[in-house]
Amino acid sequence: MPSGYTSLNEYNLQKYGCKVYKLSINAGFSCPNRDGTLGTRGCIFCSENGSGEFAASGNDILIQLENAKQRVEHKNKSGKYIAYFQSFTNTYAPTEILREKYLKAIQPAYIVGISIATRSDCLGKEVIDLLKEINKIKSVTVELGLQTANEQTAYFIRRGYKNDVYQKAVNDLKAAGIEVVTHIILGLPGETEADMLGTTRFAVEAGTDGVKFHTLYVTRGTDLAEEYQKGAFRCLELDEYADILKKCIALLPRRVVVHRITGDGKKGDLIAPKWTENKKMVLNFLNNALNH
Fold first, then answer.
1. How far apart are CA 136 and CA 139, in angstroms?
2. What are the tens digits of pLDDT across the range 201-223?
């Protein structure tokens, strides 16, 4: 791993003393961009699974966790895990429902913390107070889908809120002692390298504790797929993505943890870029690029 940035594995070793795996679960939440509050079709790149293609299925959270653990425990010698509320908007419900689900997820002894993917506009005071309460029991991290700091791009992808809403969410979470991870998509339609570097700087200046970098990928059943098939944009090639990723990571201070250096769509639904299908090859390529 390159010495110029802090990887998630390195951070987890410091924090928990061992390697930690994430177990993705679907807690049955909706999203204001899906239920009619802001819209009904979600963000332009979002599938009907709400970015939870790899989450476990089933209604009971404890069963989902156990099933997900069984799939990966052969390669996790530490036996420690983080429950990852991945699908849709995982703070978008009454606080009593949120409390019930969060408390259930931290019940197993093998769960050392929870990671909650949500929107910056779904973090009211009651929710922040609840997260602060849970964080006193087991570690809580909140993942925010900023994607871009370019307001025009944000409108195009139907993010549904302005940049200042993200900034306030980060400030409120950090004031409550909650760690923040920011999702950034590289290669959004119409964006330049300067835009992508600008988004990285914006997230750092806002105070994010970690970053997840994703290449833009197009999956079937999304509005983005329709735009792609019309030839409205192209996806980044692997070497282009690696070059931009390296420049973005160079902007990060050591305190900001790199949680992910790429993303991948669900095989069978992926339209482009096809190079993301070979995850091992991609990771090897990217790590080599970051080291040179």
1. 7
2. 999 999 999 999 999 999 998 99
